[in-house]
Each structure stands twice: as structure tokens, then as C-alpha cells.
Amino acid sequence: MMYRLSAYRQLKNRASSSHLSWITLFNSTRSNHTLSFATVKAEEVSGSQPAEVHNLVQGKWTKSSSWNTILDPLNGQPFIKVAEVNESELQPFVESLSKCPKHGLHNPFKAPERYLMLGDVSTKAAHALGLPEVSDFFAKLIQRVSPKSYQQALIEVLVTQKFLENFCGDQVRFLARSFAVPGNHLGQQSHGFRWPYGPVAVIAPFNFPLEIPLLQLMGALYMGNKPVLKVDSKVCIVMEQMLRLLHECGLPVDDVDFINSDGKTMNKLLVEAKPRMTLFTGSSRVAEKLADDLSGRVKLEDAGFDWKILGPDVNEVDYVAWVCDQDAYACSGQKCSAESILFMHENWSESSLLDKMTELAARRKLDDLTIGPVLTVTTETMLNHAKKLLQIPGSRLLFGGEALQNHSIPKIYGAIKPTAIFVPLEEIIKDEHYPLVTKEIFGPFQVVTEYKDNQLPLVLDALEKMHAHLTAAVVSNDILFLQKVIGNSVNGTTYAGLRARTTGAPQNHWFGPAGDPRGAGIGTPEAIKLVWSCHREIIYDVGPMPLGWKVPAST
């Protein structure tokens, strides 16, 4: 996400110049530089001052009979208590979803004023996130639960703010734009509408505690649905605070339910409440289980073993090396779009690319969280994976492959240096090695390989065998090379050209997988309409009847 920094600096400068007009417009909601919605102070959440996270159901914030204690990923202290609902406490959530009909809270024929209300909520929330005190609050809260550099955390907040700006005013009702087609006779017309599902569920991961759940949640609301939101308990405090902000901005308190629970309990809720659609972002294993349990009523943005191909034209080595470093190791590699494997043309091997990547990786430090805790993979697991890769003939360690030292990160999390392992292409494509090489390690870890001109078909074969098709990058300005690779690959979000990357998706283009009818997108009008609405056709046939009409013969 570092790629957006300069653009957002310009954005904030422009916002600052029009600050007074914003304040005048929004003086009915609250003054600038206020955190009146917040129930915690980001900097003070600690073992000595633990925060609490509650549930929201049927318009009321509630606790539960048990608490899940979250350990600080930097020092292991118990610093957040999450009120997790157990299976015996699910009934209020089941009842809440059951109150929402299949035709939703609103649709083009019902309560259309809600489209305008949600446009106003987006406007006020976008303004709030643009205030330095509020954006700083969320950036630091993100850092506390999903440690990443302040720059990375702040950009997550700014992308979220820009998304909300994109759906201010009339933009929400524009999502429900319909179309009409003339019929066969006077008085007949067919109209196509975007229709809500009604009761729905959003399940969001830990790695982007604000951006992913907020963008999907608002998309669900915009289209007329009633969502229940479940965020990974390790980071759920961020969305709890964001929901409180949305309520201050005018979102009705009973529009969204917010549940904290373990996976088994959430699965039981989904099976009992039977939401009409569930959006899941997370691991492929859980995604497939949900697809089975919910009879396919799902949209998935699951894990991605994401690839990058460096074409034969070598240019701007410093820049390409920096992008490779960002793609593989920013947020400690904990992005579903992170660079998992790098195919470099032999021309790049003859350049200084690998030396520069090694130098850039060495700059990353725990002190500024440019490298940090890995929340879902242990140190032992990552280092064991490295050892297995190094047993493949011709493999070698390029850099990393060691645990971080002198830290207090608890053992339930991972902590390794940015790591890259070279594996020969001829070995990667062998059946006995391919599953190991393409196993996704959700941490600062990538595989690097090399190919010659006549080996491009082997590279394309390797891509064809992959199961997840989220992001990809083809780094080349050779148009014929680009056409060849793009035409023989699938990934839903593919960057092409010398400045191509795999990570850093902003709010202004589609982000999501391809090649799977269950694939979900995020952020754009097209993504919102695809994920959070279905097509309904209404055919008007009002006459008049033809003169002299008579009952025809039976057919």
C-alpha cells in the first residue's frame, strides 16, 4: 500500500485547504478533532489497561457470559477482553436476522429514502475519518492489534475514507440504477433491477481490520441488506469502534448486528439463521467448508498464492526491486495479495536485482514494525517450510531464513526475517515438489525462480496448476510479452507494465479473484452490485388490448 502514499498526501493537503467549508457543512454532527464515539484510547490499550469489546444485536450493545483474552502481539500481555458469544447465546442474533425479509430493508420499490440516508452517513463518516485526530486514532488502533508500520496503517484508514467519499450523496442510489427494454406491443416493457438478498453475513479477517470489513459492510447496507458482521477476534476492536462512529454519523443502530465468537459458534449461527448470502474473506479451507455448509450461498475472497513475472526487458532495477520488497514483506507479508512467487527472466538474474532485494529486506526492523509479528503462522512452521524447500535439488537461501531476535513476541505468533528461497523452475513443476513450493505461507516469505525465453510455456503451465487466482503482476513493457502472459492466465486483479505490483489495491479499481463463480470483489460499484445484490426483472404489461381481440384456439 506504500504506492498510494504520495497521492494521499496530496489528498490530505487538498482536504486541509477546504477544512472550514467541511466544518460548516457538518457542524450538525460534531466538531473537528473529536473522538466522542470512542470507548478506548488506542495508545493506552495494554496489559495494565485492557480494553473490552462488546457485541451489538437488535440495536443494543451487549456483553456475554464469557470473555476471550487477546494477547498483545508485541509482548504477550493480555490486553483486550472480547465478549464472545457461545452457542447458547445465539438466539437474539438468529431472531434479528429473521426479522429482515428477503426483499431487504430497502429496494427500488420500498423505502427508497434509505438510499439517501446511507449516502448521508457515508458523507459524514468520510469527513470524520479525514480529521487528523480520528485517522490517527484508527491507524494506531490498527497497529496495536495487527502490527504494521504507521504508514501502512494510516493508508488503510485513508483508503477507507476515500471509499466512503465515493459513495456520498446520490452515489448510493446510483448503485441501484435500473434499465428498461421495449416490449412486443404497446404497454409492455421489461425492467431490470438490482435487488437485495435481505439477511446476510460478513466474515472478515485480521490483516486489514478496518478496510475489508468496512467496505464490505457498507456495500451490503447500500444495496438494502441487513448484515451480521463477524471480524477475527484478534482485531475486532477496530470495527467495534468504527460501528460506534457510524452510529454517530446517523446509521440506525439496528441496521447491523456485530458478533464476536469462535469459528464453531459462528458456523452454527449461519446454519441456523440461514442468511441469504454470506461474504467470507479468509482461508481457502474455511471458505470451502462454508460453501458446503451453506449450500453455495456464499461469495468468497479466499487466500491467494500470488505470482509475479519479470519479463525479458530489464529497466529501472532499483524501482522493481523496491516493489518486490513491498509486495512480499510489507505488513510482514500478511496480505492476501502478497507476492508469493517471483518468476524472473534470466536477463534480470544478470542484473543487480537480487542484491538490491537483499539490501531492502535487511532494512526492515521490528522497531518501526516494517517487519513484525505473524498472527496466523508460527516461527517454527515458517522455518520448517524453509528447510523443506531447501531440500529440493538446486534450491538455495537468498536471504532471511532466521527467526527475529531480541523481542518479546509470544510464541503463538511468528517472527522471522524477510525470507526468499530460490528453487529451480525445472524442480518446481515436478509433481512431487509443486504442492510444497506453492503452499501459501501467510508471512514474510517468497519463492524465487528463473526462466529462459524457451521456458515461458513452463511458467504458464505452473500458473495454470495453481488453485487460487487473486492478484498477479507482469512486469514488462513488451506488449507482445504482456499479451502472451495475460491471455494465458486467470488472476482477477492483474497489474501489467514496468510498474506492476501485486499489492496496494486502492478503492478505485476492482479487487478480487477470477475463475470461480463464487468469487467476490470489493470496493467498486461493480463489486458491490455483484456481491450484495441480485438481478430482478419486472415486466410491465398494462395494455391496451388490441381492438377486436378474441380468445384464440388452445395450444
Description:
The protein has 555 residues and is of the alpha/beta class. 36% of the residues lie in helices and 19% in strands. The chain is built from 20 helices and 20 strands. The strands form five sheets. It has a seven-stranded mixed β-sheet, with helices on both faces. It has a five-stranded parallel β-sheet with strand order 10-9-8-11-12, sandwiched between helices. A three-stranded mixed β-sheet has the order 1-5-4, covered by helices on one side. Helix 8 packs across helix 20. Residues 1-12 and 14-33 have low confidence and may be disordered. Residues 61-496 form the Aldehyde dehydrogenase domain. This is Aldehyde dehydrogenase domain-containing protein. Belongs to the aldehyde dehydrogenase family. One of its GO terms (cellular component) is mitochondrion. One of its GO terms (biological process) is L-proline catabolic process to L-glutamate.
List the helices and strands and how they pair.
Blueprint (H helix, E strand, L loop, with lengths): L4 H13 L1 H7 L25 E3 L1 E3 L2 E3 L3 E6 L6 E7 L6 H8 L14 H18 L1 H14 L4 H17 L4 H5 L3 E4 L5 E8 L3 E6 L6 H12 L3 E6 L4 H13 L8 E2 L4 H11 L3 E6 L1 H10 L4 E5 L3 E5 L6 H13 L9 E7 H4 L3 H10 L16 H12 L5 E4 L19 E4 L2 H4 L5 H4 L7 E7 L4 H9 L6 E5 L3 H9 L5 E4 L28 H8 L1 E8 L14
Parallel strand pairs: 1-5, 8-9, 8-11, 9-10, 11-12, 13-14, 13-18, 14-17, 16-17, 18-19
Antiparallel strand pairs: 2-3, 4-5, 6-7, 7-20, 15-16
Amount of helix = 25-40%
The proportion of residues in beta strands is: 15-25%
Classify the oligomer. Answer: single chain
Low-confidence stretches: 1-12, 14-33
The largest sheet has its strands arranged as 15-16-17-14-13-18-19
What is the SS-derived class? alpha/beta
| Mean pLDDT value | 93
- Main sheet: strands, sense, barrel: 7 strands, mixed
